[in-house]
Amino acid sequence: SELALASLALELTNNPGHLKVELYTVYLALASLYYAAQGPLWQKDYYWFVDGVNPCEWYGVTCEGTGSDVIRLDLSQNNLQGNIPTEIGRLTMLEEVNFAISNFVGGTIPSEFGLLSNLETLDLEGCFVGGVLPTELANLAKLETLVVTRNNLEGTIPTELGLCTSLGKMSR
């Protein structure tokens, strides 16, 4: 998104040297999420875009150790609205995503979730997303929990999800 790119450019201008190169992709993906999901309206957005604060310290973001690998996004019950951006697929180390109880009316589940090969838990309960479950979710060999209840999904569960041998819990 244009706002995410502008935010990254502003961060690099105001705080040269603050963001390590490996954080550029993380920053861009999280900024895309913030703007696509109406971040200014969130109930909790502590430290998001505060000058000099590493994205790994932002509310709802958990990174592995002190590095730049985002492994968890928990923004559940936080008044997320709008859309889940395709840039979510850039956070390749994600193990858990919890956007439960959000308001993505008119939005869909991006197929880019299928790029997150480390994803173990995807909780989109009560997000009001529409469309169909992307068949790309079958690429998630480590997926253990998929919760998509209380949404506006159409069609059937893709048979390809049967390839997710780790999937122990699925709620639709």
Task: Give a structural overview.
- This is Leucine-rich repeat-containing N-terminal plant-type domain-containing protein.
- It comes from Cyclophora tenuis (Marine diatom).
- The chain is built from two helices and eight strands.
- It has 172 residues and is an alpha/beta fold.
- The chain has one domain: Leucine-rich repeat, LRR (right-handed beta-alpha superhelix).
- It is globular.
- 32% of the residues are buried.
Cα-to-Cα separation, first versus last residue: 30 Å
Order of strands across the main sheet:
1-2-3-4-6-8
Structural domain tally = 1
Sheet/helix structural class: alpha/beta
- Sheet of most strands: 6 strands, mixed
General form:
globular
What's the name of the CATH homologous superfamily?
A: Ribonuclease Inhibitor
Strand content: 5-15%
Radius of gyration over C-alpha positions, nearest whole angstrom: 16 Å
